[in-house]
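Exercise (ungraded).
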Amino acid sequence: MSATSAAINPKGPRLRGSASNPFDWLNTYLGSSVGQKILVAITGLLLMSFAVTHMVGNLKMFSGPESINKYAYFLKHDIGAWIWVARAGLFLVFVLHLSVALSLKTKAMAARPVGYAYNNSAQATPQSKTMVQTGIVVGLFIIFHLLHYTFGMVHGIPAADGKGERNYLSLTYKLDDGVVVHDVYKMVVAGFSTGWLSAIYLISQMVLFIHLSHGIQSSLQTLGLVNRRFLPVARLIGYGTAGVIFVGNVAIVVAVWVGWVKM
Amino acid sequence: MKFTLHIWRQPGPNARGQMVTYNVDDITGDMSFLEMIDVLNERLIKDGVEPVAFDHDCREGICGSCAMMINGLAHGPERGATTCQLHMRSFKNGDNIYVEPWRAKGFPLLRDLVVDRSSFDRIIQSGGFVNVNTGGAPDGNSLPIPKADSDKAMDAAQCIGCGACAAACPNASAMLFLSAKVGHLGAMPQGEAEQSDRVRKMVATHDREGFGHCTFIGECEAACPKEISTEFISGLNRDYIGSAVKAAVKGEARGGA
Ligand code: HEM
Ligand code: SF4
Ligand code: FES
């Protein structure tokens, strides 16, 4: 008996093609500029879908406190742990979108080490050249928005006894069926009755519109869904969706401001 | 006509460069942009000054050599024209004209307006061909190709590899060039078989050569002397997604190029 016969597998490790290593696939396809751009496009469109859903849900402000408070209660309690799955997913998508987009942008800046003395452009839209700037503003706004309404850390409403402020999160509302829930309606009215807060929201919505007016049509092209004939359609979808998000969100702010929606 | 030219002068790849101002007169509107620089160079030679180095060859808009950024636009202000096909009547008498080389990491500067575009050759070498034994000429019509497909291939095949797309792109992306080559071969049955390998390898080489990514700004399309459409970039991405799916299912991915 030779020494090797003691080995568990005398023929050596099982053969595997290098192609069976999933990291090869990931490095190749998600490591390239095209693959990463596709990631930015997919995550961008997911964020866009969220923005549409979020806006439509918030339109319940127009049907009164009962409606919006019930909806908010449904999201936070009735769907149980799914809210955390949704939040984690959204967070992941958000982080992926901005980290891949910013990393691509850094590489693109390195791709032109010496710039032109005379800068000019033939047909580029301003929004297509400022995606990073508008994206960063939108990102900062999202953080601000969470601090403001989700964590109630930015602003309070004057307490009934005139002493100090009450935290947004302590506001309560009694639904028709007797359940006591968080008063989202009052919180939103309090927020947008404050001039500087409304101004921040209006400006941010403008910037989001600019980001999406290029982002959506660009994503559709990135995903290979557009040819020369459908380019005008992709543009229409882009401006249309961005416009719907803008109008819906701004309507809520303005309605509170001019007093259509009040306590 | 008279012009004030501001031209990038740089004696060598690692030397310091700068914009230098020259005045030219006795220019007629029918002169091409290159002929106008010829006039300037003749004078510079007489004055004992090193003439402006620039690439040119065919001077009829088919070779893609005459790379120049003119007033911030690749190949100047006319759509669908190379610099050699740009005429001085496109400018107003007395204009200031800024002339600069292509600026991209993938196009290292050699001298004045001349850049090294061999990165494009390496992109082609990594997949811009069809692996068939040529053999004898096939019978006519033995391989039917729909008219729409051949038109599409012909549109893409117009690319002369001038590099204007990458020079004009704010991201310094050569995606229009890449997509024209990939789209041209993929539209034909002879090239289709290797399309998913080709697109993976050529994209990998494009990135390795230091070009940026495409965000559909669309400047390349306006700069392209052959008016290649960005729809080919969309098509390239479609092929890339197809290649990724095929590699995932069949386990074919072997790294880029
Ligand atoms: C609600 C939030 C956001 C939405 C809905 C959104 C949506 C989009 C969409 C649809 C695109 C197009 C992708 C493409 O060009 O193919 C895009 C691109 C981009 N986004 Fe956003 N985005 C959001 C937030 C952000 C944030 C927070 C940042 C950065 C900090 C950002 C940075 C960018 C950049 C840099 C691009 C350009 C892509 C590139 O250069 O490859 N976005 N975004
Ligand atoms: S796509 Fe157009 S601009 Fe780009 S290299 Fe080809 S001919 Fe030149
Ligand atoms: S010199 Fe050949 S295209 Fe201009």
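Further reading is listed at the end of the chapter. For now, observe: Chain B has two domains: 3-100, 117-131+145-250. Chain B touches chain A through 60 residues (CB under 8 Å).
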